[in-house]
Specification:
Elements lengths: L1 H7 L10 H7 L2 E8 L6 H13 L4 E8 L6 H9 L6 E6 L1 H4 L16 E15 L10 H10 L5 E4 L5 H13 L4 E4 L3 H10 L4 E5 L4 H4 L5 E5 L25 E8 L5 H14 L3 H8 L4 E2 L4 H22 L6
Parallel strand pairs: 1-2, 1-3, 5-6
Antiparallel strand pairs: 3-9, 4-7, 4-8, 4-9, 4-10
Helix pairs in contact: 2-10, 3-10, 7-12
Length: 325
């Protein structure tokens, strides 16, 4: 997943010169941003902040249309069927585009069925523990030793089977040689509640899911997945610091147009994206979810999609995940 770091590092180099005139000249009447998850969640929050800032520039009216279900796939399928006229866009985490082709044998779309515009934000994953784990466990080495000595409690939850956090936990098990049983949940919220209650030992999830509980000490983050420590949990070492380089990755949220969208439309949407994500107000709003603003170009996102899609195949095979229909 080194490619994630390479293209996201270029975010600050994108200038905004000349954008206002371009956006005014190309403004549409109405546009909708598809989101494959329910209202109120992290992806929805990202999309709504983008829509607010694009309203009046990219289009006079910009609406967020939630199409939850099938782990985010329904929204991607809707984008594939939409006319490439600029009125329909999609905000989605990377996994729906790059990882899912390796998980679902009958997936209704592929990486060529979306047109990359750019990323909006990125987030690190975190491996956290709750009251089921003794206070003497301070890092992954401690946890793995404890898990090996207590096999009946050696488990971890994730927001869903086949999700990137699931893959992170499965890789940790493979890399360490310690068997960790996966407990899949339907989203992070019920998993975090079970972690707090001690029904599940550990949890692998985006860092933002832990933020409400870190100050109270109810949950402890033992590792984060970025190339450097997360500003949201600065005392938690990265996986790489603890000898697990294979687990270093960041999840991004991307903006896409339908297939066959023209180069002109892509550049119009890209200009609107860069302008929308430039303000401190947006950055502060996303920070509440553990996200950092990170914008790149259509070409950089297209390159990342191809490279990450290729990288996920061997990982899925290594952890032994059985693809679903």
């Amino acid at each position: 997943m080194t490619q994630r770091r390479q293209f996201l590092a270029a975010a600050g180099a994108l200038g905004l010169y000349g954008l206002p005139g371009l956006l005014r000249a190309q403004s549409l009447e109405t546009a909708r941003i598809l989101v494959g998850f329910p209202a109120g969640g992290t992806v929805d929050a990202v999309a709504r902040r983008l829509a607010d800032k694009m309203r009046g520039s990219y289009a006079k009216t910009v609406l967020v249309e939630n199409k939850p279900g099938a782990g985010g796939r329904l929204a991607v399928e809707e984008l594939k069927r939409s006319a490439p006229d600029g009125t329909t866009l999609l905000v989605t985490p990377a996994a729906m585009i790059t990882l899912y082709p390796h998980l679902y044998t009958k997936l209704a779309y592929g990486i060529d069925d979306v047109t990359p515009v750019g990323t909006l934000a990125q987030v690190a994953f975190a491996f956290g523990v709750g009251p089921a784990v003794p206070d003497s466990v301070h890092n992954l080495k401690d946890f793995l030793a404890w898990a090996k000595a207590n096999p009946a409690l050696a488990n971890y939850g994730s927001p869903g089977a086949g999700s990137p956090p699931h893959m992170e936990g499965a890789l940790l098990s493979k890399e360490s040689g310690v068997e960790l049983r996966h407990v899949p949940y339907r989203g992070s919220a019920p998993g975090i509640q079970d972690l707090l209650g001690g029904q599940v030992t550990a949890f692998s999830s985006p860092i933002g899911d832990y933020l409400p509980h870190l100050k109270s000490g109810k949950l402890r983050v033992l590792a984060t997945s970025g190339p450097v420590r997360s500003r949201y949990a600065p005392n938690a070492p990265t996986y790489t610091e603890q000898g697990f380089k294979a687990l270093e990755m960041m999840e991004w949220y991307g903006l896409f147009l339908p297939p066959k969208a023209s180069a002109e439309l892509v550049q119009r949407a890209s200009a609107a994206l860069r302008a929308a994500m430039a303000g401190a107000e947006v950055a502060d709003g996303l920070a509440a979810f553990g996200l950092d603003v990170s914008v790149n170009s259509p070409a950089e996102l297209a390159k990342a999609v191809k490279e990450e899609n290729a990288a996920w195949g061997p990982i899925v095979k290594r952890v032994g995940f059985t693809p679903e229909a």
